[in-house]
């Protein structure tokens, strides 16, 4: 089962990838575009993964069983 450390570890990987993209981006007139594209891509992928992970980890709506009678459901 996944834990809260998954978010921290994923964030560390994204920060390391962003730093590496900043350092090793090819030099030239499009260096700023290349850097920002990579860093924004890493950030957006991490945010999408984190939102999906948290939505599955703590769902807003509790699942309901359909195989029991409504009068037998504890309140």
UniProtKB/TrEMBL annotation:
GO annotation (BP), single: vacuolar acidification
GO MF, one annotated term: proton-transporting ATPase activity, rotational mechanism
TM spans (from-to): 6-25, 37-57
Topology term for the membrane: Multi-pass membrane protein
Sorted UniProt keywords: Hydrogen ion transport, Ion transport, Membrane, Transmembrane, Transmembrane helix, Transport
Any one Pfam family match given in the protein's UniProt record, by short name: ATP_synt_H
Cell compartments where the protein resides: Endomembrane system
Record's GO cellular component terms: endomembrane system; vacuolar proton-transporting V-type ATPase, V0 domain
InterPro entries for the chain: ATPase_V0-cplx_e1/e2_su
Family indicated by similarity: Belongs to the V-ATPase e1/e2 subunit family.
Full protein name: V-type proton ATPase subunit
Species annotation: Aspergillus carbonarius (strain ITEM 5010)
């Amino acid at each position: 089962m996944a834990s809260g450390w998954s978010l921290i570890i994923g964030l560390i990987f994204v920060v390391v990838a962003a730093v590496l993209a900043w350092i090793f981006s090819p030099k030239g007139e499009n260096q700023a575009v290349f850097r920002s594209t990579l860093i924004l891509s890493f950030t957006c992928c991490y945010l999408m993964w984190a939102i999906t992970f948290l939505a599955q980890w703590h769902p807003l709506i509790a699942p309901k069983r359909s195989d029991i009678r409504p009068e037998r459901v504890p309140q």
